[in-house]
Amino acid sequence: MNRFTWLAVALFACSMLAQAFTREFPPESKRGVMTPGVYPEIVLNGKVRLLAVNIQIRNADNLLETFNTLLPGSYYVNYLENEAGEIQRIWILTKDEVGHTTHTGPNPGP
Questions:
Q1: What are 33-58's pLDDT values in tens digits?
Q2: Taking the complete model, does pTM exceed 0.85, yes or no?
Q3: Where are the domains of the chain?
Q4: What is the DSSP string of 46-86?
Q5: Environment class of residue 70 by beta-carbon count within 10 Å: exposed (0-12), middle (13-18) or buried (19+)?
Q6: What letter would DSSP give residue 93?
């Protein structure tokens, strides 16, 4: 085989591994439904909440995403709060993760 075939096989194998990746969430994370608002506000479980200045948002592919790139709409999320009650970390969940119930927070569920 030539090197391009090996490259294609390697990329395919990497993509299969990425699809099998299971994210681990901190045990203290909570679950909610988030709707982006006007920065630094979001609506989380029907209440307006503030984002921390060092907010970290991970999309369903586990990639970092900035607040201004979120599309309008509602997202099922896991999140962490800081000591001031601001939202510090958000993980946008996949459909499979929404059905998974190993978190400690309330599950608004689909």
A1: 999 999 999 999 999 999 999 999 99
A2: no
A3: 29-110
A4: TEEEEEEEEEEEE-TTS-EE-GGGPPSS-EEEEEEE-TTS-
A5: middle
A6: P
